[in-house]
Amino acid sequence: xxxxxxPDGHRALKSPAISFxxxxxxxxxxxxxxxxxxKRLAPxxxxxxxVTYGAGGSTRERTHSTIARMLAETDLTPAAHxxxxxxxxxEIDDIVSRYHEIGVRHIVALRGDPxxxxxxxxxxxxxxxxxxxxxxxxxxRRYPDIEVSVSAYPEKHPESRDFDADIxxxxxxxxxxxxxxxxxxxxxxxxxxxxxxxxxxRGIAIPIVPGIMPMHNFKQARAFVTRAGTTVPEWLAQKxxxxxxxxxxxxxxxxxxxxxxxxxxxxxxxxxFHFYTMNRADLVFAISHLLGIRPGGAQKxx
Length: 302
Prior knowledge:
Layout: E1 2-5, E2 11-14, E3 17-22, H1 28-41, E4 49-51, H2 60-73, E5 78-83, H3 89-102, E6 106-110, H4 132-142, E7 147-152, H5 163-175, E8 180-183, H6 189-201, E9 208-209, E10 211-212, H7 218-227, H8 234-239, H9 247-267, E11 272-276, H10 282-290
Parallel strand pairs: 3-4, 3-11, 4-5, 5-6, 6-7, 7-8, 8-9, 10-11
Antiparallel strand pairs: 1-2
Helix pairs in contact: 4-5, 9-10
């Protein structure tokens, strides 16, 4: 957190900036839940909110309709996820054009997971963009007014040969025009700070925003993040031990763990966070409150 000087001369901590990730709903019930979540979190005034794009573009239209509704009905700044998988260049270019036409000025550009899921062989469309740097370069060349965020991996991407190769890819994305990177989930803050040291040493100066995931359902979340290369420490697993059938206590533990992680990062100078909400408001709202973030933009020292 950064210090600011109040009119009375006292110094106070400024609350961090935040952003949220949502996924497009599949059913009417999920749609209602998503918009209840958005209404709950919107008053926290996030910098932006991103909407994911399913494997192989499977949620393309639902992502677009969610983004369009956000633009029409809220004051939020939406960022549309876009991947290289499952579409030719012309098709992806058309998607970007459609987003630009409705007012989207922020895209999260990703290579995307393999069509068969994490752990299967990766392949792109033969006439498609072959890598995320290619996609970033195309977007920034055609639409200089679109901001492009990309992904970063404190434990390296699971398919990367080593850390140097992984950072090469991030450097290529920055050289192509990316202005922000959002990290994969991590639970050991030392991993994040060591990663920052590595990429700063390579001359990468863009913000590297920590991606934070409150563990609503620990077993499900652990299975998901470990497939993507995230290490789940034993100390974290122990905190959820014996709570499989106790959802209320799990929520309290999850909020405490995530808030503690974020507050420790903030004390070391991190002033921006991206929350993977899983389309739920409760834990993210509570963590934001503990950080001093109040509805309507009012801020208090955490």
